[in-house]
Amino acid sequence: MKCKTNLFLCFFLIICHTQPAVCKDNSSDSPAVNSENEKKVEEILDCLEKRYGGKGFSALFFQASTLQAMKITDTANGRAFFKSPGMMRWEYLHPDRQQIITDGVKLWIYRPDDKQVTVGEFPSFFGDGKGAGFLSDIGLIRKNFLVSLGDSIIDTETMLKVRPKGKDIDLSVIHLFVSRDTCDVIRLVTYNSYGDETRIEFTDISFTNSQPDDLFHFDIPPGTDVIELDR
To answer: Which CATH superfamily is domain 3-204 in?
Structure first.
């Protein structure tokens, strides 16, 4: 498997087996500051759910993934599509063509230039918001993760720290950057215990209720090698 594919899978799969839940974590602050921060978190989550609730959306994305142990940073870009509940389609256009598609039940990772598709089950890798699955059901952030207010250096953004409740060896935290003006998720950054980082930036975000369900299904072309993805 090519290095670029490994880096992509690191982004999605390092957080696939966490067991998350809701909480606010500002233990180092005073009670008054904690209360104010928790209020702000609730306001942001309310705004996110209003913005994304019941809507599909698409966006251009830029991804930068770093594996610290190998001192490798790789970049990619393309367009992504999301629809509740649990439907996602990531179309990587550069530097290598690749599609990651799920209909909420099945998962397909298709590499057309290699005539290869990897097939798995959605719940094993994206269920309950795992593996960036919360982007296709934004309500899962409040329901299934620890959420606290972070520090953003840009005035037009608010940063949320999203953590799994369980002590997961891979995922440490996700930093979710939200536009103060629109409540769009404009960037997310994942970190794991090994120092690896994956950053996804979204632009040209467009909301729609008319995305067809078959956009999130994949029919395997004849002659394509099929690989089962380990759970």
So the answer is: Lipoprotein localisation LolA/LolB/LppX (2.50.20.10)
Residue ranges covered by each domain of the chain: 3-204
Residue indicated by tokens 């970049």: 75
Provide the whole-model pTM: 0.81
Q: Quick check: 168 pLDDT over 70? A: no
CB-neighbour burial class of residue 201 (10 A; exposed 0-12, middle 13-18, buried 19+): middle
Give tens-digit pLDDT for 151-161: 888 899 999 99
Q: pLDDT: is 140 or 160 the higher one?
A: 160
